[in-house]
């Protein structure tokens, strides 16, 4: 019987040496003349254990990690092919607490299947959502998505079904599905993991969206910083075309749909949907004023659904298992699951998909295991560079769109960056302003000028020049940026700045000069 | 000299012709030109404008808006260091200072021997194994000072 080994091709695993491990394993297989094959899967999302090698056994998949190329021979000597015990042995991977505690709906296959095997995809419930969608009318598909309660996972949290309904009801000679895969927020990698680990789920979700609103062409706009995701996505698209999933007849139906990958060029602001559309059209990524909404006048002025990768990748399971199934997870108006990305200075960093409602403390302390450095957690930035810094006092905040908004924060794309007590929050506030200045598209004044002035004010503050006045100016400036900017870049930069100032005021006051007691 | 620029022009025209039929072809063309030449030769911008029937100013505007496009060749290697928050939380700033010191260049600079160009990057999506870097096409996670020194020596060989 052929033994199957799994060595991830996810770029997180590659960054930690997975390619060398795979080469070493193949060399050992050849030398030892083993009847074995290596599948290059996606990542399970447990990055502290990457590169993680798995082997298929009659009882399930046994994992080892983190594996170095130099460990491979010893692992095989210890019977890795049969799941033999070794210091790197992790046991049955499905029983690993980090995975067992998750609710994997969107990431159900990620790390399990061969990302570029349509057979694997089908064998693991793939295409069932699309098959169901083909039995429904477009309005019924939209109704399912609306009923599921799915909200935009890119950060804005707008109900996906309502967006689709608007496009469905808008007439146009051509409509588009645009997938926003411009995942530029620090601390986020869910889009990348899906594209590298289960690209067919995104293809399926986009195809369902196309059928639902009457679009025949889809674009995936992703980042040049993601070369591996681009390669896997393109490979999967070709396989989907050959397999009859995409093309003039989707799964033999009367619907036509095709998808093309487009690559950005290092502009963060292109993750903003209207800047993204400008970029796709071949222009500078300058934010458009709304209205018109992209749903009415989007790409090339045509009705366009523009959704984040995770929103689209969550659609197949909704159409497969039904809206009530999906809606049953979550809390309040945040329904379904959210792939949390736990990153930065954290012991157990990775992707954790769970129903909404876990508290920030549970995520950081229990799941993440605290900091990697072992020092106390000082702050957690939630939602990328435009998200607020949360102190430990707010760790009881449940992960939910509204609950975070109530604490002057946002969940954004659900990335969490953990910082230990060595972080200087004044420096982080400065960085937020600096980043905004670097990435501003330049269209509106509060963002373009405000960010540069913001850096200067923070610099004066750190030089202890009239600190009270600087804090007043900074607060006023943030207010102007928040309410006066055209898009979230200028509008949300105040979140990290003001949260740093509010929750960590001690970092904004220079250390008092020691005065002799007598 | 004459033949070199004619060669660039003819190769560029080949690329432009191949891609100009796409919807929104400008970014794909600029990417392909940069892949072909290692930078976007400034003399190709008017050719693009002509082929797409847009103004030279518009092409220039797009070319200069995006951080990725270069108007001159990079070093033999390009080292991108992530400067974003997740990498900062794991000591990215100190590593970045060390890199500039080791290579003797600032951001966007190229060493005098043409060996390496240092670029900042804002997130490689490797935030759970920070600090992250990319050397040419190779992604690197949990970068440390020792590894950085190896890279700095390696790229100069």
Automatic annotation (TrEMBL), chain B:
InterPro entries: NADP_DH_HndA-like (IPR028431), NuoE-like (IPR002023), NuoE_N (IPR041921), Thioredoxin-like_sf (IPR036249). [2Fe-2S] cluster binds at residues 82, 87, 123, 127. It comes from the Bacteria. It catalyses: a quinone + NADH + 5 H(+)(in) = a quinol + NAD(+) + 4 H(+)(out). CDD domains: TRX_Fd_NuoE_FDH_gamma. Pfam families: 2Fe-2S_thioredx. One of its GO terms (molecular function) is oxidoreductase activity. This is Formate dehydrogenase gamma subunit. The keyword NAD does not apply.
